[in-house]
Amino acid sequence: MTKKSAATTAGMSVRNVLWLWWKLLVVVSLTLCVLAFLKLQSYSLSDSELSSSAFSTSSISRRSRPVDYRGNPKVAFLFLVRRNLPLDFLWGSFFENADAGNFSIYVHSEPGFVFDESTTRSSFFYNRQLTNSVKVAWGESSMIQAEKLLLGSALDDPANQRFVLLSDSCVPLYNFSFIYNYLMASPRSFVDSFLDKKDGRYNPKMSPYIPMSKWRKGSQWITLIRKHAEVVADDDAVFPVFKMFCKRRPPLEASKGKKNMKHQKQHNCIPDEHYVQTLLAMHSFEGELERRTITYTEWNESATNMEKKGWHPITFSYADAGPVQIKRIKDIHNVYYESEYRTEWCRNNSTLVPCFLFARKFSRGAAMRLLSEGVVSQFDVASIMNSTP
């Protein structure tokens, strides 16, 4: 009896130990599942930035704005600059020939920078900087954020009906009257937008928030009607997805050795070349666009340059800004999109028009030549040679 009782007790002890281990295994497994779920949620919905379902227009917040405006429409010139505005003297001359009731000016510069008599030659830019600006880095989502801030500020004025995004190296190719009439004559936005088939910038992790079928590419330099400007400024669904998944690939660094190979496998996504185009496509607004930019850029597309540092816009010098070169840009009436085998003829209400109203990137010397030769207006170059800043 004693031996049997001991054997029974030993068997129960083994079963108890196995049972305890089983319960512990179950608890640990459940804990790991919960942690994995929470991690997935934080990755997919970081700080509640992304919605819990696929994109829909209901996720777009709308600020209270006038539905209709019957007064004199204005063009809002939105300058996205690094710090100051090097070509302010040219733009000052441009705006001098305009009716003040036909335009407004907004400048996004680095936080804390103020446009006044000590930082700009033109009074048109005095205190036109945004007070809520952000630090901007090329190839990052902060560029989109700055554009959204410019549009948001300009939309506070119901008279603003056209919104033109410009860089600190942009120049007008015509006088104000021509540009104003050109923009107001069209009920469409001018947004360079085409299918991105080759670059592989689309990150599958964007799905289902941003379907690949809506992924577009194009120039950052856009001109929007008010309806489209509101969509871009108020978007709080698509922008967080871009911020999380559309990022520039780190540059090659000799010191990182094999890590460079890992970095080069990342999606090389430049947010400002995709955001507005993709957002408007997701809203089914492409039928309301002239799918081209009105800002001319000349690219260095040589194979050697591409291998070394990628394609970059050419900067126009004084020698490049003569009548012949400017006429060549003005005479462009169509743009070919290789990825879509599409020739976009530049039209405005079915009328054939010059494709470009602005151009970049222009040096200070090139801008002086435009003024001295009357491209924008008659101007005495000597008047600014010794001026400040």
From TrEMBL:
Keyword Translocase listed: no
Signal peptide: none
InterPro entries for this protein: BC10-like, Glyco_trans_14
Regions that span the bilayer: 20-38
Primary localization class, coarse: membrane
Bilayer topology annotation: Single-pass type II membrane protein
Keyword Glycoprotein: yes
Keywords: Glycoprotein, Glycosyltransferase, Membrane, Transferase, Transmembrane, Transmembrane helix
Subcellular location: Membrane
PANTHER family recorded: CORE-2/I-BRANCHING BETA-1,6-N-ACETYLGLUCOSAMINYLTRANSFERASE FAMILY PROTEIN-RELATED, OS01G0695200 PROTEIN
Annotated protein name in UniProt: Core-2/I-branching beta-1,6-N-acetylglucosaminyltransferase family protein
Source organism (scientific name): Datura stramonium
